[in-house]
Design goal:
10 helices, alpha+beta, 6-stranded mixed beta sheet
Length: about 350
């Protein structure tokens, strides 16, 4: 039985080599072209037969290769929900032409923030997927869990099942669309510690250009994100919680933490902001989403080095307050004691 870390190394080698030298070289170096690799049979659907149109719009729910009921679309528009359902249906069918029809041919960038890899054109992404997708087993699925945003931009929480890369990857990714509804920017954020993958060595090769200037977000989510992160960066728990709804839900996917309600939230942030990667010293880099929410990418607090970046998804209520906040970063970049301390921050002090 192959250990998950072996497949995680394959993903790392695949993307890094692909960014530098093209798909064929990447797949060869990653060991994808090897005997015994399962090939997905009959995974490509003809144009117009479900899972989105060939032009990258639409999708519906008929024939989806995953249960559509798992997708939380309460804070996104119907249009972006339909588009992303179609995208993930095509990805789960390993249908490269359909997947690539959702991306802008003129202006596409795909970055894995965990691995520090960047594919800076439609052709690079297409070459990689064209070579790789036929080599994964038919049981390899990718499906959305939650979508927040609109056709300007959105945050999507999704799962790549273990047959794709040998480990279950749960990502929370910002996506930017152009005026024609095509994807121009996609950045994957996932936690390597939760996926049991080897740590990425952050060094001089880590990307410095994430195309953060390519923003297309509703003013409501921009304002909420900047105000919230300003309070976090200042270590002001009261100000941060003042921007939240009474029944706010706070989730740290990397620290396996869930806090509910403003009272708990204020106690938690009073303990935590000096130590959280998105706390004191962190700053907004990029914002995405619509009137009901989206998310923002942030530069990590200096104390979280070598971690560079993370991503926070926010849902907004009708009054513009944050009703749900979900954060993700690569906890593999933290020492184990530092990671343990973050997990322990959710614990309430005993009553004296």
């Amino acid at each position: 039985m192959t250990h998950p870390t072996q497949h995680a190394t394959t993903r790392r080698t695949l993307l890094r080599t692909g960014a530098a030298a093209g798909a064929a070289a990447a797949l060869g170096a990653a060991g994808v072209f090897t005997a015994g690799t399962a090939v997905a049979a009959g995974t490509s659907s003809p144009a117009g037969t479900g899972g989105g149109t060939a032009g990258g719009t639409g999708g519906g729910t008929a024939g989806l290769p995953y249960p559509p009921a798992v997708v939380d679309t309460s804070h996104c528009t119907a249009e972006v929900a339909e588009l992303l359902r179609g995208f993930f249906a095509a990805k789960s069918r390993h249908d490269v032409p359909r997947v690539m029809s959702y991306f802008s041919r003129a202006n596409t960038v795909y970055i894995d923030a965990n691995l520090g890899t960047a594919l800076m054109s439609w052709q690079q992404v297409n070459d990689l997927f064209t070579a790789y997708f036929p080599k994964v087993p038919a049981t390899a699925l990718s499906y959305p869990v939650r979508i927040v945003g609109d056709m300007r931009s959105a945050a999507v929480e999704f799962v790549d099942t273990p047959p794709f890369f040998g480990a279950e990857l749960r990502a929370l990714s910002p996506i930017v669309f152009d005026g024609q509804g095509k994807i121009t920017r996609w950045v994957d954020y996932w936690d390597g510690r939760s996926a049991l993958t080897p740590p990425t060595v952050i060094g001089g090769a880590y990307p410095t250009d994430f195309k953060d200037s390519e923003q297309n977000a509703h003013p409501a989510v921009v304002e909420a994100a900047r105000a919230l992160q300003a309070a976090f960066a200042a270590g002001d728990a009261a100000a941060a919680v003042g921007l939240m709804s009474a029944d706010v839900v706070i989730e740290d996917l990397s620290a396996h933490t869930r806090v509910c309600g403003r009272l708990q939230a204020q106690r938690y942030y009073a303990r935590a902001l000096g130590r959280l990667p998105y706390g004191i010293g962190a700053a907004v880099l990029h914002t995405e989403g619509g009137r009901r929410g989206g998310g923002y990418e942030w530069s990590a607090a200096p104390g979280a080095a070598p971690l560079r970046r993370g991503h926070t998804c926010i849902e907004l209520d009708n009054a513009g307050k944050v009703s749900r906040l979900t954060v993700i970063y690569d906890a593999n970049q933290l020492s184990y004691p530092a990671y343990q301390s973050l997990v322990g921050l959710a614990a309430e002090a005993p009553l004296s």
